[in-house]
Amino acid sequence: MGNYRDRLDIIADILQATSREAKKTQIMYQANLSYKVLQRYLNEVTDASLVQFTCENQSYLITPKGQDYLIAYKEYARTNKNIEKRLNDFSNKKRVLEDLCPYKDDLTATP
Fold first, then answer.
1. In 81-108, which positions are buried (b, 16+ CB within 10 angstroms) versus exposed (e)?
2. pLDDT tens-digit series, residues 18-50
3. pTM of the model
């Protein structure tokens, strides 16, 4: 299965695209979003003051609050990746133990 992005990932991708002034089409391609999904998220990040729209250039630009979000997101993503790796290692060790002593459905049965 592929890796699906969640809401936080998509917002971070949009903010990254707007770190240099960007128009909707540029954001859409850089964040790999459909136009419909882009519209929804642009409204959300604009309402949250993470990006601002400039009428004269018809473009979007990340705000200081949006930059703070990106910094926090990068720390979150790094920690999350670390935790997922440790959980995967833990699952592998558990599987080794279970293989060494397999579970039997009926422990009362005699051999």
1. eeeeeeeeeeeeeeeeeeeeeeeeeeee
2. 999 999 999 999 999 999 999 999 999 999 999
3. 0.76
